[in-house]
Amino acid sequence: xxxxxVIVTNVSKYxxxxxxxxxxLGEAVHFAHEIEKAGYAIDYASPKGGYTPIDxxxxxxxxxxxxxxxxxxxxxFMDLLGNTLPVSALNPKDYAAIYYAGGHGVVWDFPDNTAxxxxxxxxxxxxxxxxxxxxxxxxxxxxxxQDGSYLIAGKKVTGFSNSEEKALQLDKLVPYxxxxxxxxxxxxxxxxxDWAPFALSDQRIVTGxxxxxxxxxxxxxxxxx
Length: 225
Description:
9 strands; Rossmann fold; lyase; globular; two-stranded parallel ribbon; alpha/beta; Class_I_gatase-like; Prot/Nucl_acid_deglycase; 7-stranded mixed beta sheet
């Protein structure tokens, strides 16, 4: 059985502000919980490999469900996040799907990593699923087909919305708005109400709007593989 590849960030701080960031823990946890229940193994990787910082805001009491606590207090799981695989160590043929977890850090280290984009394209071209949640959609922005067209062009996708970014008052701190660039790449962007769970599947590309959408993304990925 092929494994599932989860991609997380290496960015721990906003480059332009004294503000911490990193992986939004729940976006890895709730996806992993569904995938592992279905019997699949997961590899965790990041652009540089090694440690992925956890966004401290994602550890706030209001966001920590029993599932979050189950994983956060699991030493083996946290060790995996502390020692992620580098992109250079990945063999796309090992994976049935790739999933880009979010957190604001990814808007800096996901889009321009050409090796990571190639891994995703190879998984897709071998019949696999490419998926993301929230800001993780940044990983989809520059995946190009061999003819130079964008993989997401013409496909229904979602990701963190402009209205959600503005509600957090972070729209001026990020270098781009995820929704805007998805649209600019030719994707058919859709969204639900702010913070509501929402996931879309179109031609083996599965995307979720916000942190609440991680489990719905996992369920749609499982249906496809």
